[in-house]
Design brief:
binds zinc ion, about 450 residues, Beta-lactamase, globular, about 35% helix, 14 helices, 21 strands, five-stranded antiparallel β-sheet
Length: about 450
């Protein structure tokens, strides 16, 4: 009798454990199934590393990719070249982290019936991107290596994120055997993953630090006779600028003045403002993590510290991150975290909608207003308003020396100060020479395309 009751108990306990495990699995299945199905490498969804699911459009409904069956890209060659780094290729050489990140929402996985892939329930991902701006940026780069980014600093919508070189996914060149260098770094999304010596666009940050940390800086003047000696080392300027205010020094992009200004700001304050601007931080959104920039003056000599405030020395910035910093200057010290995925829909049903998240720099609005006004003066006095659409564009150019016998990189960064078009931007043309000559006109053309889309015009 005793033995029988013991056996009955063992059977009951084992049955109970099996039931508990089964319930646990079912519960986990309901919660996690979509993740399991859309894991990178899932044969249901992926070719290479890029998901095959859904239709992808730009902000105006222009179709960029139909991945419901095979990957069908745009009919337009320039648009294919301009968007491959965001959509990914067929073989996974170029990753599409954004589409991968939302693959569970794109595939429409149903826990009861499993995957569904019929005509009627195709999901559409509308990116915040402007196809018009993408094509304008790619065309304006004209085969040169570099990147162009534009985003709405109030909402976070990325309208333009072009990287060059690129290639046509429908007519893949023999990249492995190319000896011309034309495809160097072709698989890299330079906007998210590259870092560049900023050159003089960095003087915007040094100016903001000086306005907040050097008492009476606005009343000082700085004298430039073409060069100066800092602690025994020669700092050269691009011209002979004479006596200048802080604003004029920024407009002249005077190295002699900024060598002096950086020393007055000092090592610790420069470090603190690099933190406020987020130069060394990575941005994370939509499955994208940007490259971190660099600013390290811990062992820098006095002349090296001076060069660091001029945007040389070991300074590096990531284009996407620096564009956000431009947004912070435009918008009273805070700017939206960028995003590319705007909305995912199935018919009239919304499956995902982007939310705006603000990033704060700690810069006060009175500072950013002053810096913005100086950057506006730059455009009016140095670059010419004729290069840009008829809105209040504020900007700073850079001609970043990278050494190794190469021509400097042309840099241009800034923003539009207009409630209708709250756009921050950055342009990098590798070995492009002068930023004001090479990169500024590209910014003008791409901003015009963005504004046309925001106006809903044709
Ligand atoms: Zn000068």
């Amino acid at each position: 009798m005793n033995r029988v009751s013991k056996r009955a108990w063992v059977v009951l306990v084992v049955a109970g454990l099996i039931l508990a495990a089964l319930l646990g699995f079912v519960a986990t299945y309901f919660v996690r199934a979509a993740d399991w199905v859309s894991f990178p490498g899932s044969p249901h969804l992926y070719s290479g590393v890029n998901p095959n699911t859904g239709v992808v459009t730009d902000r105006t409904g222009v179709q960029l990719l139909d991945a419901t069956d095979e990957r069908t890209y745009s009919d337009d060659l320039t648009l294919r070249l301009a968007t491959i780094h965001l959509l990914g290729d067929r073989y996974g050489y170029i990753e599409a982290p954004v589409l991968g990140h939302y693959s569970d929402k794109l595939v429409g996985f149903n826990v009861i019936t499993g995957l569904y892939h019929t005509e009627n329930d195709t999901r559409t991902a509308a990116l915040s991107l402007s196809a018009r701006a993408q094509s304008a940026a790619y065309s304006a780069l004209a085969g040169r290596k570099g990147t162009v980014g534009v985003y709405n600093y109030k909402t976070g919508e990325i309208l333009c994120a072009v990287t060059s070189p690129s290639y046509d996914p429908d007519n893949v060149p023999d990249i492995a055997n190319d000896t011309t260098g034309a495809y160097d770094g072709v698989y890299v999304n330079r906007f998210f993953s590259a870092t560049y010596t900023p050159g003089s666009i960095f003087k915007v940050l040094t100016t903001a630090a000086a306005l907040e940390q050097v008492a009476g800086i606005a009343d000082q003047t700085f004298y430039c006779e073409g060069s100066t000696i800092v602690d025994g080392e020669l700092i050269t300027c691009t011209g002979v600028h004479g006596t200048q205010t802080l604003g004029q020094a920024l407009s002249n992009s005077c190295n002699v003045a900024f060598a002096e200004i950086t020393q007055q700001v000092g090592r610790e304050n420069m470090e603190a403002y690099v933190e406020k601007a987020g130069i060394r931080s990575r941005l994370s959104f939509d499955g994208v993590t940007t490259a971190a920039g660099n600013f390290d003056v811990s062992d820098a000599s006095v002349p090296s510290l001076a060069w660091s405030g001029i945007g040389q020395y070991t300074d590096l910035v990531n284009p996407c991150q620096y564009m956000v910093f431009m947004g912070m200057i435009a918008n009273g010290g805070e700017a939206a975290l960028p995003h590319l995925m705007q909305q995912i829909t199935e018919g009239s049903s919304v499956k995902y909608e982007a939310k705006t998240e603000m990033l704060k720099s700690g810069l006060v609005p009175s500072t950013t207003e002053l810096v913005a006004r100086m950057m506006r003066d730059n455009v009016v006095n140095s670059y010419g308003t004729g290069l840009f659409p008829d809105v209040e564009v504020c900007a700073k150019s850079g001609t970043a020396e990278t050494g190794e016998g190469k021509a400097p990189n042309a840099m241009f960064a800034g923003f539009v100060k207009d409630e209708r078009y709250p756009l921050a931007f950055i342009v990098v043309v590798e070995e492009g020479g002068y930023g004001s000559q090479t990169a500024a006109p590209i910014a003008g053309q791409v901003l015009s395309a963005c504004i046309a889309d925001l106006d809903g015009g044709n």
